[in-house]
User: What shape does this take?
Amino acid sequence: MLQIFFLFTLLLYSSHASALDFCVADPKGPIGPSGYSCKMPAEVTVDDFVFSLGMAGNTSNIMKAAVTPAFDAQFPGVNGLGISIARFDIAPGGLIPMHTHPGSTELQLVVHGSILAGFVSSNNTVYLKTLKTGDIMVFPKGLLHFQINAGGIPVVAFSCFSSSNPGTQTLDFALFASNLPSAIVEKTTFLDDATVKKLKAVFGGTS
Assistant: This one.
């Protein structure tokens, strides 16, 4: 009897595991800390597991850079798998400013050009390196980091993340593209009123 019970349990577990091979994101459903809800299996196609990062992003902006994400919102097949990727295009003179990924470690590979990259640890130690084509660098989860074009040619890099939705908060945008009152920005950054208002005008912030 005990053997039959164990056999039944094994069959039940195998059947359940098979049904949970993946959870393709349903963009019409709710999203929470664990990601999107799952598409019905009958609605899943091979295209949910394929994404193209072959096209350069538009670098005609203040940063002279573009990030093309393949996170769960764009690439439904990675939902719940703990992995995603993004393409970085950085024009000469461009940069990805100080930012953090609250939900993920980042591993970046430079495939064209060179970048000056670095991160700041929680004890304010700076780790800085010029990366050339073929170099990789890891940015630990949650730490502020940046990438700057270090040459006179466009940069192409790809970053892998340990989450299907790593989240991104850019320091400049948080301070100067939000409606955080200027008086608070001035007090917390030691910047003067004129500088804060100038930066808010550049980034589109209010208040």
In short: The chain has a mean pLDDT of 89. Residues 94 and 197 are 23 Å apart (CA to CA).
